[in-house]
Amino acid sequence: GPGVLTRTLLNSGARVVALESDQAFLPDLQSLEKSLGGQLKVVYGDFFRLDPLVTGPVKPPTICSEKLFESVGVAAVPWRADVPVKIFGIIPQKKERNMLWRLIFALYECSSIYRYGRMELNMFISEKEYKILTAKPGEKRIYQALTVLWQVGCEIQLLHMEPWASFLTNLKSGGLAIPKSTALPNDHLCLVRLTPRKDLFTGSMKNTNSATFVFLVKQCLAKPSSRIIDKLNSWSLYDACKLLRELEIPEDAETVSLYPEDYMRLFDALQNSNVFTESWFHDEVLQSVRNIN
């Protein structure tokens, strides 16, 4: 865009790498880059078209994170190190749900931007999606797989709420072009900080088996009113009742009532069972991964 967010970051004293996907805005940003003596680097690229799932060379504004970070001197750091890069942006509304899924999946498998460490996202997202990411167990209309995965994977902090009127107008009617939402309030864009947890991969969770956790959560919350015991029995798990008793989870508990920590404890327990070694389960996981991608 015209660089409002870029200039705000520059005025704070930050060193900024600005990705611009619209060539019409490049000349002004490149002129600003030349005047700042190294504080700003402008790259023709689109963050939301980063690391496409294709082989071979890509054409800008599509861009690969490996080449991007190499060009700006960002090296990979261990997961438990400090945040190496802070990323700011506005997720396009038409791509919002898809991008939230792609980002969380990249986080769990430490791919794309997360190959370089715990990248901190500071993103404007719709109020509707913010409510989903921060939903509580029992809220059947909004407590979803995406909720659990983001809450397990990241610390979620609301930094600011801005009315839609500050961003969008409908040139034809003069009214506001606000995305419709009937189930949830959607009067604001929310600036949300998503910081990956240092301890995400310190237990049984590894980037090599995280796809199984994603699949587990997606399957359990596909029907929020289903009972967790029925889901476990559908996986032919030996003595599911005993497992739930050990975890102190009621047998008649609905999947929507389980806390994110419960899903992590369930994952840890299932890692020690034989259900994850069954070939059919791996096939299901792989198909789920393909669907997410």
Automatic annotation (TrEMBL):
This protein's GO CC annotations: mitochondrial matrix
Residues the entry annotates as binding S-adenosyl-L-methionine: G1, E20, D46
Keywords: Methyltransferase, Mitochondrion, RNA-binding, rRNA processing, S-adenosyl-L-methionine, Transcription, Transcription regulation, Transferase, Transit peptide
Major localization class: mitochondrion
One GO term of the biological process aspect: transcription initiation at mitochondrial promoter
Recorded superkingdom: Eukaryota
Pfam families found in the cross-reference section: RrnaAD
InterPro entries per UniProt: KsgA/Erm, SAM-dependent_MTases_sf
EC number, UniProt record: 2.1.1.-
Subcellular localization: Mitochondrion
Example of a GO MF term: RNA binding
Family recorded in the similarity comment: Belongs to the class I-like SAM-binding methyltransferase superfamily. rRNA adenine N(6)-methyltransferase family.
Name this polypeptide is given: rRNA adenine N(6)-methyltransferase
